[in-house]
Amino acid sequence: MIPEAREVHLSRKDRKVLEACCRSPVTLQRDLKRARIVLLAADGRSTRSIAKEVGVQPRIVSLWRHRYADHGLEGLQDKPRPGKQPIYTKTTDKRILKLLDKPPPQGFARWTGPLLAEALGDVDVQYVWRFLRSHKIDLVARKSWCESNDPNFTAKAADVVGLYVAPPAKAIVLCVDEKPSIQALERAQGYLKLPNGRALTGQSHDYKRHGTTTLFAALEVATGKIIATHSKRRRRVEFLDFMNSVTAAFPNRKLHVILDNLNTHKKNEDWLKAHPNVQFHFTPTSASWLNQVEVWFSILQGQSLSGTSFTSLKQLQEHIDAYVNAYNDRAEPFVWTKKKVRQRRFKGRRITQI
């Protein structure tokens, strides 16, 4: 049943707005029909005749007549609709975060999306992934850290950094360490051409091992140049032999040598007495990153050793020696940019026992 028609009285201002709406080429069809309904109703037309002319049901005409009569132009706008209630709420998000604070199920190293969804029971795995992405939570990425428990951390760090920033006058500062057990691996290598025409370099998974070598290296802080020798082992005797070659490379010069806390680097008082121009400086415990030669070992691995193949141990050693010579031709000193080196504890750090 159609409600009784409401009388519509238009003000001049409202009529201009509705007529402009009808003339505009960008007016939506729904808004155009509502404007025409109100304009025709204001001219005294009946509900059924308006419905026939506009092309809508009479109940639609009656609806917009009543809406305009009660609320004016604002009544011709759509009312806000509640829409579908969300399945997952902030409570769900809190449940996911609370579950991440707990250890994973027994036998698993870490949480995964499916494991979280299974543990929650009523949450779809796709929502779990969306939530993790929105909060930038990566379940796979891991960050490692090493806290130094050296009570003399500050003094030792200041000593080492001081040698980098303000070395003693007329003295040579060297960073010395070893890269042990470099393997001479022989792998089949070649190029793989993909269907799209792109060519990739690759190597086989199987390999043949031809032995290992230990590389002793000394980095001269002032120039960035490297002194390196090979050895089968990394005992104290090999370390002191290398130090003999280093002192021979800098005769009659005062040497300040930065070392980590490896046992073979310590308790060498007899050798130091025989070489009064040499002074050892040790990095704090668990802080060998202060030794700049570690940076060079990383460069060596990335530029010279990764993805290579060797048919003999001699070939590996010659390959490293060739790289050292090429590196020294263009060597530049590392620049110390960190302003402060301090021992900082992780607040609220929790270590779980698995």
Which terms would index this structure?
354 residues, alpha/beta, five-stranded mixed β-sheet, 12 helices, 5 strands
Descriptive overview:
It is a single chain. The protein has 354 residues and is α/β, with parallel strands linked by helices. The protein is built from twelve helices and five strands. The protein has helices at residues 12-23, 29-42, 47-54, 58-71, 90-100, 113-120, 125-134, 153-165, 236-249, 269-274, 293-305, 313-329, and strands spanning 171-193, 199-220, 226-231, 254-259, 278-282. It has a five-stranded mixed beta sheet. Helix 1 (12-23) packs across helix 2 (29-42), helix 2 (29-42) packs across helix 4 and helix 3 (47-54) packs across helix 4. The chain is elongated. The chain starts with 11 loop residues before the first helix and ends in a 25-residue tail after the last helix.
What do the pLDDT scores average to?
Answer: 86
In spatial order, strands of the major sheet run 3-2-1-4-5
The biggest sheet, with number of strands, parallel, antiparallel or mixed sense and barrel status, is: 5 strands, mixed
SSE run = HHHHHHHHEEEHEHEHH
Q: How far from one another are the termini?
A: 73 Å
Shape call:
elongated
Query: What share of the residues lie within helices?
Result: 25-40%
Approximate strand percentage: 15-25%
Beta-strand segment tally: 5
> pLDDT below 50 for ≥5 consecutive residues: which ranges?
none
Radius of gyration: 39 Å
- Please report the number of helical segments: 12
